[in-house]
Specification:
A 1,2-diacyl-sn-glycero-3-phospho-(1'-sn-glycerol) binds at residue 149. By secondary structure, the chain is mainly alpha-helical. It has one domain. 58% of the residues lie in helices and 8% in strands. It has ten helices and seven strands. The protein has helices spanning 24-46, 51-76, 79-82, 87-90, 108-126, 130-138, 141-154, 182-203, 210-226, 244-261; strands spanning 6-8, 13-16, 21-23, 93-95, 98-100, 169-171, 178-179. Strands 1-6-7 form a three-stranded mixed sheet, with no helix packed on it. The protein has a two-stranded antiparallel ribbon with strand order 2-3. The chain has a two-stranded antiparallel ribbon with strand order 4-5. It is globular, with a radius of gyration of 19 Å. It starts with 5 loop residues before the first strand and ends in an 8-residue tail after the last helix. The mean pLDDT is 84.
Length: 269
């Protein structure tokens, strides 16, 4: 019976004036960056790194995440559409009809690459140790990812496959089928990863690259496994043994395992 499940039908917008809307996803994206900013600031304070450096780093990482995630989605998940509407890759609205949509369609794999590129550029421009930046920012990546998946839940997007488990969600905007709340699964896992890593870093110093290896291994193993109970995001994935999200996760997992299992060449920082 439908009453045995959770009916999920929230508005995806906090404010909707027709031509412009403020979405819960945008709020969750903001919470991701604010919470990450607070955690990184604590790490910078330990090294007496000024807040002006953190503010500049935040801009770099924000732009790197947004650009990387956007390009990742457009290139790997919906290239057929965006190859014909290239301006919509960089503009947060559609032309026909004109409507402000925000950047709907962001891929975490592209976001990960974008963050690494932004950190490289920042370290070169401001003469900071690249691996210190990578390990510090890596600590907050699962925290940010948890909030972003909550935004996906509010949007009723990236839904799970049909199921009869008692905690199934009925996404009214999609259909009346009880489905796995895949977004919630990922969000909870990411928050757990953050909690574990944050406490590991409080106990003792970690060798260079540990945080990076821990985060990308953990995040993309979670992503790979949850994809089995997710609906495919693009039609071309229908006949694939594993979908695009899983394929893109494999190299991240391998790189993460390398940094976790290798013999550190550098002493604890």
């Amino acid at each position: 019976m439908l009453l045995d499940f959770i009916t999920w039908n929230p508005s995806d917008s906090i404010v909707d004036l027709g031509f412009i809307s403020i979405k819960y996803y945008s709020l969750c994206f903001l919470l991701a960056f604010v919470s990450s900013y607070i955690v990184v600031k604590k790490q910078f304070d330990k090294r007496n790194i000024g807040i002006e450096i953190l503010d500049k780093l935040t801009i770099y990482v924000f732009l790197g995440t947004l650009i990387g995630a956007r390009l990742g989605h457009c290139l790997f998940y919906d290239f057929a559409y965006y190859s014909k509407h290239p301006l919509e890759i960089i503009l947060p609205f559609t032309f026909s009809p004109f409507k402000f949509t925000g950047f709907q369609g962001l891929a975490s794999h592209g976001g990960g690459v974008g963050i690494l590129v932004s950190l490289y550029l920042f370290s070169r421009n401001y003469k900071m140790n690249l691996w210190y930046l990578i390990d510090t920012v890596a600590m907050v990546v699962p925290l940010a990812g948890g909030f972003i998946r909550l935004g996906n839940l509010m949007n009723s997007e990236i839904i799970g496959k049909p199921t009869d488990v008692s905690w199934a969600f009925i996404f009214v905007k999609e259909d009346m089928l009880p489905r796995h709340p895949a977004q919630l699964y990922e969000s909870i896992c990411y928050f757990i990863l953050f909690f574990v890593l944050y406490n590991l870093n409080k106990e003792r110093k970690r060798y260079v690259g540990f945080n990076f290896g821990f985060v990308i291994t953990g995040i993309f193993i979670v992503r790979f496994l949850v994809e089995f109970i997710k609906e495919n995001q693009s039609a071309f994935e229908a006949n694939m043994a594993i979908n695009m999200g899983q394929i893109l996760s494999i190299p991240f997992i391998l790189v993460g395992l390398y940094f976790l299992l290798r013999k550190p060449k550098v002493a604890e920082k």
